[in-house]
Structure formats: structure tokens, C-alpha cells
Amino acid sequence: MRASFEDFKFNRQILNAIADAGYEEPTPIQQKAISPILAGQDLMGVAQTGTGKTAAYVLPIIMQLKYAQGNDARALILSPTRELAMQIEENIKLFAKYTDLRTVVLYGGLGPKTQKEALARGVDILVATPGRFLDLYLDGDIVTKSLKFLVMDEADKMMDMGFVGKIHRILEVVPRRRQNLLFSATMSELVHKIAGDFLKFPVVVEVMPQATPANSISQFLYRVPNNKTKINLLHYLLGNTEQITRLIVFCKTKVVADNLFKFLSRKYGEDNVRVIHANKGQNTRINSINAFKEGNIRVLVATDVAARGLDVSEVSHVINFDVPIVIEDYVHRIGRTGRAQHTGVAITFYNEAEAYYVKKIERLIRQEIPVSEIPEDVVVEATPYEERQAMAREIDMQKRKENPEYKGAFHEKKASNTKAKEKTKPKKNTTKGNRKFGRKK
Ligand code: AMP
Fold first, then answer.
1. Cα–Cα distance measured from residue 302 to residue 329, given in angstroms and rounded to the nearest whole number
2. Whole-structure pTM value
């Protein structure tokens, strides 16, 4: 039997918000964690980002707080980084939309005035990084006596970032009688120690990262400098009509999917290609999928959302035109091939900015994916200025995510970067005027 959110003791407001979010069934961590949290137990969840751990604690907290009350926070969620704090806030907003619960998010890196004003207006759920929480607490802006829930998210990262002292300080200033939840991707000795200080007889729930891909799937990477070259490479690979018999091309966004579809149907004829994404009507989607299943079309272009649960056997190849940002989607994507005793091939194109996610995927699936050389005959185009800027910005964002202290070198760096690239360009030229983009790892 499929698990359902209706199985939990949630009220209508929450169930409706879950339905609006498009969540159909609880993820494994949600299945394991929601009931004990609703029952008032302390809990330690060992789960990575991407498993749905945020909703696993946000939903039961919203359920218990129900509606706005008084001025002082009743739940405190501690996050190591500003990015995570903002994501948590988004999750709360999503699920508390049919309630009047007030959320305030506190993080450093900007003046405290707006945050102080928000606190003064009254708050039910506080999401905060440890340093800023303590600063505002010491300024007298936060009253802790009403706190019923304390959540520590990404506890391992908190320890890595040296927050242990601040955490102990916070534990001293919050009331003793409260429900405590701790989430961590890994269990280091330090995390164990803080869990011991923090949790009382916790229920421990653990979810493993997504199952590793089936052995019947061969995986390859191509490091491709830009979109135009990705299209050239896709076109080249499609020339292999003997092996690539039924192909799904995955794209991150509807726009990329639509553009690719246009290109492919121009090259290979409208009858050979279909595209599915969330903006296509249900009927069009079903027709496309059926035509693909029956083998009437060779290429299906799809976004992740549209491809959820797509059950098509005998897909010979999956090509990831870009790297999924929700890295678990990688396992979903490539799982479309190599099904039911068939062998399959999964090829992923990635550019400089996507290398970050490739590393994460390799960590998730605990495999190193081999990198193939771009074939000689594929024209490697120069990267347009706009695309280069977008990639540099993305890389900056990644660095900031890894290290909140990182100020962002994008603006200073871009000029020198451009120069450096220009200098190395001629080296990539090959005799036929094709520039080759060599293996780099
Ligand atoms: P998290 O691990 O909390 O960062 O969640 C990872 C992603 O999964 C987020 O984009 C969530 O919106 C999404 N998500 C969480 N729970 C579910 C669910 N039950 N069904 C579908 N998506 C979900």
C-alpha cells in the first residue's frame, strides 16, 4: 500500500497546503519521523538534504503550533547557514499558508534593524543562524520562555563550522522543558556528543541516500563548455542510430526543453521527437509518452517534474542535457534506462558551473563517473559573454553556499577571468578549426 499524508493526524489546512505543494506521498524520512514528532518525542534524524527532511519536522511543528499566539517564539530552528535558513523559511511559508503563524528568519551579514522590527511584531516560529540568534538575544529582542520546540538542522555542518560553543550557549538560555529535534547528514563524534547534550531518549530515524543506480547502467560524463556545444554533441551522438534507439533527453527547465525540442524536430522531423513538461496539457503528455512507449518516436525531451514515475521500458539511452540541481533527480533520471534486465547508457553533459553538482552526485551514488573526451568531429563553440557571466555567478553562489564567510569574488574576478580565458583559447584549436575541450577532472 502506498503511504499517504492523510495517514498522519494533520488538519485540513496542512493537508491542503501539502496538496498545493504537489507532494503526493511522504518521503521515507517523513514516513519515519512525522509520527514520533507529533507524539511529542525527541528525535534524531540522520538524513541528507534532498530527502525531504525539512518538511519532516516543519509539518508536525506547524500542526502543533496551529495558529498565532502571543508575542514570543514557540519554535526555534537553528541552521548553520543563511541559505538553509531561507530554505527552511520557504518550507514553513509553503505549509503554513492556511494558518496565521508568523515566521521570522534571522541571519548575519546585514544590519539587524529589520529583523528586530519583525521580532517586535510578534513571532511563532524563529529560524536562525546561531551567531545572529545570540546577538539579538543578548540585545533583549528575543524572549525564549515560550519555546516548546528546538530544532538543530544540519548539525554536522554546525560542528564543522565551529558553532559548538554558540550552541551550548543557546542551550543555556532556552527553557528545559521542550521537544528537541536534531538532523544531520552524517554522524561524527561531535554530532553524537551534541546529540547527547541536547536530546532526551530520542527516537533515531535514519534514511540512506537513494539506492545506488543499477549495475546494468553504464554512466559517462562529457565536460562541455557551453550550451551550443552541448547541442552539437547531442546532434553528433544522435548520429549513432544503431545504438541509440530510444532516448530520453532530460533538461532542468521548460525553456531549455522547448528550445531543444525545436532544434531536434527541425533536424530529425516532427514525427521523431516529443517534449513533455508541466506546461503541456495532461492529454498531450500522455499521448507523447504513449507514442514513445510504442516506439513510434525516437527521442523524448523531458523535464524532471514531467518525468516523475514515467515507466517506459527499453529506453536505450538517457542523456542529461544539464545536471539536475536536486541531485537525487540524477538517480531518478538514469533509472529510466537499464530497466528489467536491459542494459542502458546514461550520459551527462556538464559545464564548469555544473561540476559542483557532479561532485555531489558522485558522492551520493558513491561512484566516480568516467569522463569521455568530446569526439573530434564535434565543433566546440566559444562561450558567449552572457553565458560565461551566468556560470561565474553560479560558481560564486556555490562557494558562498559552502562557506558563508565567502564574500563573492565574482565582481573582482570577472575581468581577470575573461582575460585568462582569452589567453588559453588558441591552445584548444585543432587542425580542422574545431576547438577541442579536453578531459579535465
Ligand atoms: P529537503 O531534503 O527538505 O531539502 O527537500 C528536498 C526537496 O524535496 C525539496 O525541494 C522539497 O520541496 C521536496 N520534497 C520534500 N518532501 C517531498 C514529498 N513528500 N514529495 C515531493 N517532494 C518533496
1. 13
2. 0.56
227 CA distance to ligand 1 middle (Å): 28
Provide the CATH topology of domain 5-206: Rossmann fold (3.40.50)
**Cβ–Cβ under 8 Å, residues 78 and 167:** yes
CA of 108 to the centre of ligand 1 (A): 26
Question: 204: exposed, middle or buried (C-beta count within 10 Å: 0-12, 13-18, 19+)?
Answer: middle
Atom of ligand 1 nearest to the CA of 27: 19
- Mutation to probe ligand 1, out of 6, 14, 27, 79 (largest number of atoms < 8 A from CB): 27
Same fold, 5-206 and 217-383: yes
Q: Name all residues whose Cβ lies below 6 A of ligand 1.
A: 23, 26-27, 30, 49-55
Of all protein residues, the one whose alpha carbon is nearest to atom 20 of ligand 1 is 23
Q: Which amino acid is at 406?
A: Y
> Which CATH class name applies to 217-383?
alpha beta
* Cβ atoms of 142 and 73 closer than 8 Å: yes
**Tens-digit pLDDT string for the chain (441 aa):** 568 999 998 999 999 999 999 888 998 899 999 999 999 999 999 887 778 899 999 999 999 999 999 999 999 999 998 888 998 999 999 999 999 999 999 999 889 999 999 999 999 999 999 999 999 999 999 999 999 999 999 998 898 889 999 999 999 999 988 999 999 987 778 888 889 888 989 999 988 654 556 667 889 999 999 999 999 999 999 998 888 888 999 998 889 999 999 999 999 888 889 998 777 777 787 788 888 888 889 999 998 766 665 666 678 899 999 998 777 788 878 877 765 556 789 999 999 999 999 999 998 888 899 999 999 999 999 999 999 999 999 999 888 888 777 776 555 444 444 444 444 444 343 433 344 334 343
Distance CA 186, CA 419 (A): 41
The minimum-distance atom of ligand 1 relative to the CA of 53 is 3
Kindly list the domain boundaries of the chain, sorted by start residue. 5-206, 217-383, 395-424
